[in-house]
Amino acid sequence: YFPQKALEGRPEDIAPCIRCCIGCLERGVNTGGSINCTVNISVGREEEFRIKPAVRPKKVTVVGGGPSGMEAARVAALMGHNVTLFEKRKLGGMLIEASVPEFKDDLKRLLDYLVTQVRKTGVKVVTEKATSQLIKNGKFDAAITATGAYFKRPAVPGINKASTVGALDVMNGAKVGNKTVVIGGGLAGCDVALFLAEQSKKVTVIEMTDEIAKYMEAGNRKVFLRRLFKRDVDIRTSTYLEEVTENGLIVSDKFSAKDEITCDNVVLATAMVPNRELYDELIQIPELEVYDVYNFTKLGGFYDAIHGGHYATRTLA
Question: How far is CA 53 from CA 39, 293, 312, in A?
Answer without folding.
Answer: 21, 21, 16
